[in-house]
Design brief:
Number of domains of chain A: 1
CATH topology of chain B: Four Helix Bundle (Hemerythrin (Met), subunit A)
CATH class of chain A: Alpha Beta
CATH superfamily of chain A: Response regulator
Distance between the termini of chain A: 18 Å
Number of strands of chain B: 0
CATH topology of chain A: Rossmann fold
Oligomer: heterodimer
Radius of gyration of chain A: 15 Å
Structural class of chain A: alpha/beta
Number of strands of chain A: 6
Helix content of chain A: 25-40%
CATH class of chain B: Mainly Alpha
Shape of chain A: globular
Strand content of chain B: under 5%
Largest sheet of chain A: 6 strands, parallel
CATH architecture of chain B: Up-down Bundle
CATH architecture of chain A: 3-Layer(aba) Sandwich
Shape of chain B: elongated
Helix content of chain B: over 70%
């Protein structure tokens, strides 16, 4: 498990620009595979920003946007995502509750576990990591998102899943 | 009050991206302003915390450093369950004023970008 915690350098380096941050599919024979990336955040601007950035990383990423935990659960049943980026702090169903329901669904539907990356605006990532969250989430990234770290995340988890 | 260098770098100076992003700021700021206005006396700390937490990464992103730093301070105080002092209420008021000014500035930035 990796914890990406450095909020100070977030977005301030030129290599974090849309053009220069890239996500390469460095695993075998996935040339025609389209990856479903589900992003869940209750703030519209965050969904927009994340969607634009992910779209620019690689054309083989299909973005599924959800404005609530409940919407993500409904869409999860229909379009099993290859990776899920889930905001922690949401009204109604928060990220922990949503992830728990999704993990239960995976067991019921006999699906392999989806890589779930928690997104948090907490400056101290330790505030959101406990034993339970380590079981639910594969990774943690702080906001504003460092897109080079996000790209690394895609390389790690999509590669591992589809090798 | 704002510094769009991060967004400009991020977008490789694509003005349509910046414009679309700024347009999405207004509903968020309005929601946060309302939440703080309704709890200006520091009564519902949970709601204040939620509002501050929503704004935090977005203030950092647009380089609104003063408001961001004050928001961090207030967020920390919200986590402390002790009774809120007059100073907290005053700082909350200042934060509200900063956001209102930021909203006006973003309006102007949007107009400028649209005119290009």
């Amino acid at each position: 498990m990796n914890y990406h915690t450095n909020s100070e350098d977030v977005l301030d380096a030129p290599q974090n620009s849309l053009k220069s941050t890239s996500f390469s599919m460095n695993h075998k024979d996935n040339s025609s595979k389209i990856f479903n990336v589900m992003i869940v955040d209750d703030i519209e601007i965050n969904l927009y920003l994340l969607g634009e950035i992910i779209g620019s990383l690689n054309s083989k990423l299909n973005i599924i946007k959800c404005i609530s935990g409940m919407e993500s659960i409904e869409k999860f049943k229909l379009q099993k995502p290859d990776i899920l980026l889930l905001d922690i702090h949401m009204p109604s169903l928060n990220g922990f509750e949503t992830a728990k329901i999704i993990r239960n669904l995976e067991m019921k539907m006999n699906l392999p576990p989806t890589p779930i990356v928690a997104l948090t605006a907490d400056n101290l990532i330790e505030n959101v990591i406990d034993d339970q969250s380590k079981l639910l989430f594969n990774d943690f990234i702080t906001k504003p998102i460092d897109f080079s770290k996000l790209s690394k995340c895609f390389n790690n988890y999509l590669s591992n899943t589809y090798d | 009050m704002t510094n769009l260098s991060k967004i400009n770098e991020l977008s490789s100076y694509k003005s349509s991206f910046v414009l679309n992003l700024l347009k999405r700021y207004q509903p968020l700021i309005e929601t946060v302003l309302l939440a703080i206005h309704q709890n200006a006396d520091g009564r519902d700390l949970r709601k204040i915390y939620d509002a501050l937490h929503k704004m935090k990464p977005n203030l950092e992103l647009i380089g609104a450093t003063d408001a961001h730093q004050l928001g961090l301070l207030l967020e920390k105080q919200c986590k402390n369950d002790s009774d809120k002092t007059d100073e907290f209420v005053n700082q909350l008021k200042i934060y509200h004023e900063k956001l209102a000014l930021l909203s006006d500035e973003i309006d102007q930035l949007i107009l400028n970008l649209e005119a290009k």
